[in-house]
Give the backbone structure.
Amino acid sequence: MLAPLLSAVAAPNPVSGPKPSDGGYQTSAAHAILIEADSGSVLFEKSADDLIPPASLSKLMTAEVVFNEIKQGRLKPTDEFIVSTNAWRRGGAPSRTSSMFIPIHSKVAVDDLLHGVIIQSANDACYRACRRHFRQRVRIRRS
């Protein structure tokens, strides 16, 4: 009875992930971190604590405009936008850029678009969040 318990304790932890020295996960990215969602355990990291500039200032500005609209009460995180064919073509899967892969004519909540812009740097989410509703306000705030 004690032997199975000891072998379970002595077994390698599957959450710890492969070690690069063991031929484990490798990436050509300069910075990376992979975290197991349930436990929060770091499975892989490469220069994860280095300070790096944001990938896209325009995406940060999009997020700022959306947060301001929410703060002003003109928009709610639960409001939904429909993804047009144009938004899908320009920023979605066919664009071969960073994308949330939002299907055409699907409804997406503002909260989900924000997650796509901030976490995934998704062009389709950014394009849809700015289109029509914010375009005029972005122009005004630039001046």
Q: What stands out?
A: The chain is about 40% helix and 10% strand.
